[in-house]
Design brief:
Elements lengths: L6 E5 L3 H13 L3 E5 L2 H11 L3 E5 L7 H9 L6 E5 L4 H10 L3 E4 L4 H17 L7 E4 L2 E4 L4 E4 L2 E3 L3 H12 L4 E3 H8 L8 H15 L9 E4 L3 E4 L6
Helix pairs in contact: 2-3, 3-4, 6-8
The chain binds calcium ion.
Calcium ion binds next to loops.
Length: about 230
């Protein structure tokens, strides 16, 4: 059956898993292009112009991290990495290299499909210019006016706190690594100063969350970074 949905490139060396994933994608009206090596994947990314890449990090020829680095030299292609290793350092490195999101094996197909949808949605939204408004649950942020409200009450943030929140808003629903946050909020020379991030994230949660110890909006991705929830989980 020929489908006409977005073309998704899949780089995965495990034949069974590759077949399972491409069948799943095709059942959802995506076109799936599945290859087994990093080399084939890089060629396909260039020649076939897919809308999104699903990349297994453990590949036989080129390391998945290198695939991301090489792609990012010329392409903004959205990338979801699959990590079998459940190693935070692999995931963090992949995100810092330019991957957009990750899943740790084993994961459910529902999870994969929702990540794909979220990423394609985000890409579709991008050319619309600067976002002015963000809302999740009781949290409302007016980006251009630099105003933040919780339960209709205005919250006063310091410039750094606001900048930190803005980076998370621009990536809402997606993880942003410690390094990316430090670089975007404080600057490239601060990427080792993770204590700044801990302190300011604590302050931000204190101002925004009803229970800072059990955050509803500013979520921790253990060992990797933070994610601003896009949906109200309560
Ligand atoms: Ca593999």
């Amino acid at each position: 059956m020929k489908t006409t949905g977005p073309l998704l490139l899949l780089i995965e060396d495990d034949p069974q898993f590759r077949l399972l994933l491409s069948t799943t994608l095709e059942s959802q009206e995506y076109q799936a292009l599945a290859v087994a090596t990093g080399r084939e994947g890089l060629i396909a990314a260039r020649n076939r112009k897919p809308s999104l890449l699903i990349l297994d990090l453990g590949l036989p020829d080129i390391d998945g991290q290198d695939v991301i680095r090489r792609l990012r030299l010329w392409s903004e292609l959205p990338i979801i990495v699959l990590s079998a290793r459940n190693q935070e350092s692999d995931i963090t490195l992949a995100l810092d290299n330019g991957a957009d999101d990750y899943l740790t094996k084993p994961f459910s197909t529902a999870e994969l499909l929702s990540r794909i949808k979220a990423l394609l949605r985000r890409i579709a939204k991008l050319p619309g210019g600067a976002q002015e408004f963000f809302q999740v649950g009781e949290l409302k942020i007016e980006l251009t006016k630099r105003r933040v409200f919780v339960n209709e009450q205005e919250i006063h943030l310091t410039p750094i706190e606001f900048r930190l929140l803005c980076v998370l808003v621009r990536n809402a629903g997606f993880v942003v690594t410690h390094r990316q946050l430090l670089e975007k909020v404080w600057g490239a020379s601060y990427i080792e100063h993770s204590h700044y991030l801990r302190i300011y994230m604590g302050q931000l949660r204190h101002k925004i969350e009803a229970d800072p110890a059990r955050p509803r909006y500013l979520l921790t991705e253990a060992g990797v970074g933070y994610r601003l929830s896009e949906e109200d989980i309560q």
